[in-house]
């Protein structure tokens, strides 16, 4: 069963459940091309289970979110902190620039 503070899939995109009300869930749909994610209410029947990727402290990853200061899309960053907050658990760093991100903004680097 779906609950608040859980990542799910909505129409092929990752979404985060913010609030639950009866058979509806108020979700925030993640869009890696913008910092303005869409939020709205949907019936449970439109959601599917989603296992989000996990990463380790100190891991080098590929950032795929929107440009943020000196951190650009498709740049190499390092995970410098892991928070308990389920929506934005990772803090990344590139040079001196820091940013908290969701698990869908990064991916492992395969050499």
What is this structure, in a nutshell?
With 111 residues, the protein is mainly β.
Which features does this protein show?
111 residues; five-stranded antiparallel sheet; 0% helix; 10 strands
Helix/sheet category: mainly beta
Report the helical percentage. Answer: under 10%
Computed over alpha carbons, the radius of gyration is 15 Å
Tally of helical segments = 0
Number of beta strands:
10
What string, H for helix and E for strand, traces the elements in order?
A: EEEEEEEEEE
Question: Tell me about the biggest sheet?
Answer: 5 strands, antiparallel
Description of the molecule:
With 111 residues, the protein is mostly beta strands. It is 0% helix and 48% strand. The chain is built from no helices and ten strands. It has strands spanning 7-10, 13-21, 24-29, 38-43, 47-49, 60-63, 75-82, 90-94, 97-101, 106-108. Strands 4-3-2-1-5 form a five-stranded antiparallel sheet, with no helix packed on it. A five-stranded antiparallel sheet has the order 9-8-7-6-10, with no helix packed on it. A hairpin with a 7-residue loop joins strand 7 (75-82) and strand 8 (90-94). The model has no long low-confidence stretch (mean pLDDT 91).
Helix/strand layout:
Blueprint: E1 7-10, E2 13-21, E3 24-29, E4 38-43, E5 47-49, E6 60-63, E7 75-82, E8 90-94, E9 97-101, E10 106-108
Antiparallel strand pairs: 1-2, 1-5, 2-3, 3-4, 6-7, 6-10, 7-8, 8-9
């Amino acid at each position: 069963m779906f609950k608040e503070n859980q990542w799910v899939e909505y129409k092929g995109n990752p979404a985060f459940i913010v609030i639950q009300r009866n058979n509806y869930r108020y979700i925030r749909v993640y869009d890696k091309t913008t910092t303005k994610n869409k939020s709205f209410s949907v019936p449970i029947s439109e959601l599917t289970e989603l296992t989000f990727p996990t990463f380790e402290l100190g891991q080098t990853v590929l950032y795929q979110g929107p440009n943020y200061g000196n951190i650009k899309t498709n740049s190499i960053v390092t995970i410098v902190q892991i928070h308990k907050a389920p929506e934005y658990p990772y803090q990344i760093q590139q040079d001196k620039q820091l940013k908290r991100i969701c698990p869908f903004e990064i991916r492992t680097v395969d050499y």
